[in-house]
Amino acid sequence: MIGTYFRKMAGTTQSPPRVGLAEILWSWLGGFLGIAAVAYINYGFLDRTDLVMVIGSFGASAVLIYGAIKSPLAQPRNLLGGHLISALIGVTAFKLLEPHLWLAAGLAVATSIAVMHATKTLHPPGGATALIAVISGPKVTNLGYLYALVPVAAGALVMLAVALLVNNLAPQRRYPEFWW
Length: 180
Prior knowledge:
Blueprint: H1 2-7, H2 21-46, H3 57-67, H4 76-97, H5 101-118, H6 125-135, H7 138-141, H8 149-167
Helix pairs in contact: 2-3, 2-8, 3-6, 3-8, 4-5, 4-6, 4-8, 5-6
């Protein structure tokens, strides 16, 4: 019984093949332009306000929407829905359990995973978006539910716009695979 359990960890397939240089360069360009656009808005326009535009989970989203564009987890429904749902859940968990951040953090991430599954919006960076709502301190927590709009929805929309532009420039790339 224990041996069967550990054998499951051996994997069942081979590592995927390397991608070509062109794919690497297109992924790099998308990642650079997407994050730079969000950061430009943050540092160029919002820096002197109480709003933020750059959150860590956008780095993970960039990997998916510029580097793994065929993945179901990288599609617009997942990008936008996963972040937005997770942001709302994270803020709610913080508001309900603020004195107990360890509990709020676990509940926010776990509930985000469950709701993203149930709504077909699974986007792994959404778990980080929920966690950020709980642990980031006053700059983020003071936003309350506004966090779901700025930075989350606004930033994800900017990154999606860049993904649509860059990912479709190359003849061998196509994004998205589906919308809804």
